[in-house]
Amino acid sequence: MFAEAGGARVIPLFFDDPWTVISSKLELVNGLILTGGTKKSGPYLEVVKKLLQKVKEKNNDGEHFPLYAINLGFELLLNIISESNNVLESVDAHKLTTNLEYENNVSIQQTVLGSFPLALRNKLKTDCLVSFNNKFGISKESFYNDKQLSSFFKAITTSKDKSNKDFITTIQANNYPIVGFQWNPEKNAFEWGSPEIPHSLDAIQVTQYAASYLVSEARKSRYEPPVEQVLENLIYKYTPYYSGAKGSGFDQTYYFDAYESSTSTEALAQK
């Protein structure tokens, strides 16, 4: 629904599908979202490494192909680019709603947040409009001391956890259309089971502008996938279930056919 809020349709990827299947689906889309979750190792991590390499290759070959990495996706990007499984630190940001603090050395206008209206950018600094559900993150010191991370990404924002510890919360690649959120831009508009998530007009606009930026980046691609193949693979072929009544925190959940794959791990934005 997050990609749909920006005007895109979605094709789900399943990490336990053969890579040939995953790779063929990548040819049906114009951008990629690495979603949240819990898997940080094993086959899932290896697939994410391949996906990141594919995103870089597409852009190196002249196709504008954006990537949004949210929460777990953000953490995996840090692990992969730093080439270390120890770059993440403990943060006390479980069920936390807070503000964003902009880094002084970054021109916000040249980043994903530059697409937000000035008034909303200012409110992001002062109001609690972004939500976290994290036990891991990376401090400013660790980020800037890691030459691989700080050369590949620019840090856009930081936030303070419940213990007043600063940690990096928004990053953007210097040479690729890759954005990472440690916070959850999708939750404000689409998740109602956790009372700390904000649903004010400003909070909803945060979701909408974040989604619109992703899709605007996908629209820069001149590649037009075969319509018939796109229609055959859209997420609409699967049935969402109302799970909010169980108090899980998620209002809708997809249960994919176990014959096809057990878990949906990435969602693809198709313009």
TrEMBL record:
Superkingdom as given in the UniProt entry: Eukaryota
UniProt protein name: Gamma-glutamyl hydrolase 2
Alphabetically ordered keywords of this record: Hydrolase
UniProt-listed InterPro entries: Class_I_gatase-like (IPR029062), Pept_C26_g-glut_hydrolase (IPR015527)
Lineage of the organism: Eukaryota, Viridiplantae, Streptophyta, Embryophyta, Tracheophyta
MF term (GO), any: hydrolase activity
SUPFAM superfamilies in UniProt: Class I glutamine amidotransferase-like
PANTHER family: FOLATE GAMMA-GLUTAMYL HYDROLASE, PROTEASE FAMILY C26 GAMMA-GLUTAMYL HYDROLASE
Record-linked Gene3D superfamilies: 3.40.50.880
PROSITE patterns (UniProt xref): PEPTIDASE_C26_GGH (PS51275)
The keyword Hydrolase appears for this protein: yes
Coiled coil feature spans: none
